[in-house]
Design a protein that fits this description.
Structural class: alpha+beta
Protein name: GNAT family N-acetyltransferase
Strand content: 35-45%
CATH class: Alpha Beta
Organism: Candidatus Marsarchaeota G2 archaeon ECH_B_2
Oligomer: single chain
Bound molecules: coenzyme A
CATH topology: Aminopeptidase
Largest sheet: 7 strands, mixed
Low-confidence stretches: none
GO molecular function: acyltransferase activity, transferring groups other than amino-acyl groups
InterPro entries: Acyl_CoA_acyltransferase, Bact_Acetyltransf, GNAT_dom
Shape: globular
Distance between the termini: 28 Å
Keywords: Acyltransferase, Transferase
CATH superfamily: Gcn5-related N-acetyltransferase (GNAT)
């Protein structure tokens, strides 16, 4: 069975947070607190693999772009195409809204291995690094801004 993606309902938000809480190499406690707010503030879409919640993507819309605010795949499902399916779904959402640009901010700490994999993921899926800020004021640590033209 493949990956199925759909808009989250309220009761999925806590399960999404549980997925992220288990990914402490990527998400700090302060990040998790912000995530809890953003999951409700912006559209969250869930991916199911064989009927089980496997990951989610949280999207913020503007007139010109769609921003990936949060993206996470359950540890045991990573590397099985769930993240790629969520990105593809987000791109479809953007196209339907008539938006031609996707953006995502991610860690620019080049010496921190977990985010090396994350950046490789975005780059291999067509995202280009266009801006590096160190420190990014909102995070107090390095940030790289990636964009993808649809
Ligand atoms: C980055 C992430 C969303 C990718 O989702 P995924 O389902 O593991 O990715 P897919 O299976 O669709 O694609 C696998 C690709 O991602 C890369 N990848 C990145 N992180 C990976 C990980 N932790 N495990 C396995 N593959 C990973 C692989 O190198 C692979 O690349 P390739 O197909 O070009 O060889 C997911 O690994 C994750 O949740 N990581 C931790 C949280 C995170 O980084 N979130 C984004 C914050 S901006």
């Amino acid at each position: 069975m493949g990956v199925v993606v759909r808009l989250c309902v309220e009761c999925d938000h806590d399960k999404c947070l549980d997925i992220a809480r288990d990914l402490r190499d990527w998400f700090s406690l302060s990040g998790l607190e912000k995530m809890a707010v953003d999951l409700r503030l912006y559209d969250t879409h869930c991916a199911y693999l064989d009927g089980e919640l496997a990951g989610f993507i949280n999207l913020k819309y503007s007139a010109t772009m769609v921003e990936i605010v949060w993206l996470a795949v359950k540890r045991e499902f990573q590397g099985h195409g769930v993240g790629t399916a969520l990105l593809g779904y987000a791109e479809e959402v953007a196209r339907r809204r008539g938006v031609g640009l996707m953006v995502v901010k991610t860690s620019g700490d080049l010496g921190y291995e977990p985010y090396t994999k994350t950046r490789r993921f975005y780059e291999s899926r067509g995202f280009m690094p266009i801006l590096s800020v160190n420190p990014y004021p909102e995070w107090g640590e390095p940030m790289i801004l990636y964009v993808k033209c649809l």
